[in-house]
Amino acid sequence: MYPFNYSGLLGRRPNFSPRRARDSPCLVHHRLGIPRHVAYNGIVQAISRITCTITRMSAEHTPAHQLHRLVETIRHCTRCRLHQTRTHAVPGDGPFDADIMFIGEAPGYHEDRQGRPFVGAAGKYLNDLLARNGLDRSRIYITNILKCRPPRNRDPLPDEIAACRPFLERQIALINPRIIVTLGRFALQFFFPNASITRVHGQARQKGGRWYFPTFHPAAALHQPRWQPLIEEDFRKLAELLQALTVSEGPVYHQLSLFPADDVDSGPGEGHPGAGTHGQADIDPPHS
Ligand code: URA
Q1: In the structure, which protein residues have their CB atom closer than 6 angstroms to any atom of ligand 1?
Q2: 59 CA to middle of ligand 1, Å?
Q3: pLDDT of residue 210
Q4: Of 4, 74, 185, 235, which shows the fewest CB atoms inside 10 Å?
Q5: What is the mean pLDDT of residues 213-235?
Q6: Coil, strand, or helix at residue 205?
Q7: What would you report as the CA-atom Rg of the chain, rounded to the nearest whole angstrom?
């Protein structure tokens, strides 16, 4: 029926004879005086050991494995004073291949307790903002400038930001997100040191082949309800940006079909939502 004999392609050599193979001279075992089956077993074991080593070495170099090791390093970090007062370090949460990364300021009370970012009141508001705009938190990597909670949620100090900086830089290099959303003044100024959050919030910009989208910190908006329309408008713009990126550069992630077609209102209002963005005193238990 077929014009060719396909047996060779399917793994059988047409002239192969197991008996001839078994009886053919083996230089190694003849020269060294090793029985044939021992010589064969040794070769098979050596090949399998080499294959295992190569597989393990290449697995150790995947971004996922390296991110896992980085997370462990952060959990045990003692680079600055904050390790003395933390309960848990909070390295970050989300898929290692996320297209979108959110960066906040520093863990608060609940984050410090649980070792996970944005799980307190600010986190609930963030979840709400995401859900209202059809964004799935489980597809986003979320982390902070500082990985440990500053006492009483005070602002991060410059030396603490400097000590933590390599961790965030490494997370960004390994995850390689297409867009970074900065929440609040500290995250914005990590990338754009002279930028003012009140001036640039809600405006995407590109730097080094990556998109950056600054917005206010959810905790700041919780403290100052008049800032909530601004952050909510920013999240609508973010959804539009992700939709535009999907059209021009391919899907940012698969839930994009859920985006609503809301129009965006114009113009930011006044105020200084960037100042003291961390301010989470409201989610702390009462201090004794
Ligand atoms: N505020 C932050 O900046 N990060 C958190 O993880 C929680 C609150």
Answers
A1: 104-108, 111, 117-118, 120, 122-123, 144, 219, 278, 280
A2: 32
A3: 97
A4: 4
A5: 97
A6: strand
A7: 28
